[in-house]
Design a protein that fits this description.
Layout: H1 7-17, H2 21-28, H3 32-40, H4 47-57, H5 70-79
Helix pairs in contact: 2-3
């Protein structure tokens, strides 16, 4: 299942929390390259990584997701 991850929301929360790619990578145990890919929207992280990002930024996982995206609508309708 594709997670409706939002790079825009990740960038927002990183800015709000004043967290760099390096700091976030260290907090979640991923490479700086991976975090940069998530932040730029080039890499779609799996759900466990979204949870780790959310925990590191002290937000809910849903705060890092685009729940209005077509992918989430498809996922939601499949579960209804």
């Amino acid at each position: 299942m594709r997670v409706p991850f939002s790079a825009v929301r990740l960038r927002h929360w990183m800015l709000v929390r004043a967290v760099t790619d390096e700091e976030l990578a260290s907090r979640i145990g991923r490479s700086v390259f991976s975090v940069g890919g998530y932040r730029r929207g080039r890499i779609n992280p799996p759900l466990p990584t979204v949870r780790a990002l959310a925990e590191a930024l002290e937000v809910a996982p849903s705060d890092l997701m685009d729940l209005d995206s077509p992918a989430s609508a498809t996922s939601h309708s499949a579960t209804v």
